[in-house]
Amino acid sequence: EDLASAAAAIEAEAEALRAERGAEEATTSAYAAAARVAAEGMAYSAEQRQWVELSALSEAEAAAAAEARLKLCMSVLARETKRADKAHSRAATLTAGLDRRAGALDAAVRNEHAQLAQASRELECFRALKATEDAAAPARLERLKEEIEALRSEESELQERFKAAEGRKSLAAVKEVFTEA
Predict the structure, then answer these.
(1) 151-165 confidence digits (pLDDT tens)
(2) Displacement of CA 36 from its chain's centroid (Å)
(3) What is the pairing mode between strands 50-53 and 42-45?
(4) Contact at 8 Å (CB) between 27 and 10?
(5) Cβ pair 79, 69 in contact under 8 A
(6) Cα separations in angstroms, 10 against 4, 14, 24, 26
(7) What CA–CA distance (Å, rounded) separates 44 from 62?
(8) pLDDT band at 169, cuts 50/70/90?
(9) Number of C-alpha atoms within 13 angstroms, CB side, residue 111?
């Protein structure tokens, strides 16, 4: 909000200057470009305490002006770096809870994804097992039917032998029937 109002104030001032100079069609970016070009040929003279044309300075004065400008840029850079570090620290403090929550949610999502992948693998294994079992079931049933039939015939045979032995009423005959089986 403050930035928007400041930008609007700057634009209004620029519009007033354009109207005053009779250059309503000139844009703010055109003025900024012209100011950059003009500044390239200028240097701040510490002795004169003002901005002068670079060509008006001696070589030593131009070097001193360049060094002073470099020091100014370095101090501005250091100040801005310090401000950025403070802003970063404040942002980290403000978002620490969100970062922890995001980490926890990320871990939960990864865990759920791993479980889903495991369940998918198990499902595929069970589908393959079912297909194998479905293919083998008729042969197993046939074998079981044959085994049941064999057991029934054996049981019938034993029942008949028991009846025959019972008819003789001899204990020895009953023992003989079951020891033969």
Answers:
(1) 999 999 998 888 877
(2) 44
(3) antiparallel
(4) no
(5) no
(6) 10, 6, 15, 15
(7) 9
(8) low
(9) 6
Task: Report the residue count for the chain.
Answer: 181
Query: Residue 51, SS3?
Result: strand
Q: How far apart are CA 75 and CA 52, in angstroms?
A: 22
Query: Strand, helix or coil at 181?
Result: coil
* CB of 77 closer than 8 Å to CB of 70: no
**C-beta separation of 46 from 64 below 8 A:** yes
Q: Which letter does DSSP use for residue 43 in this model?
A: E
| CB-CB contact of 28 with 14 (8 Å) | yes
By the 10 Å C-beta count (0-12 exposed, 13-18 middle, 19+ buried), 150 is classed as exposed
pLDDT tens digits, one per residue of 33-42: 777 777 777 7
| Residue 56 DSSP class | G
Tokens 């032995």 map to which residue? 165
Q: SS3 of 46, please?
A: coil
Structure tokens at 69: 């400008």
Secondary structure letter of residue 23 according to DSSP: -
Q: Which pair of structure tokens corresponds to residue 71? A: 């020091």
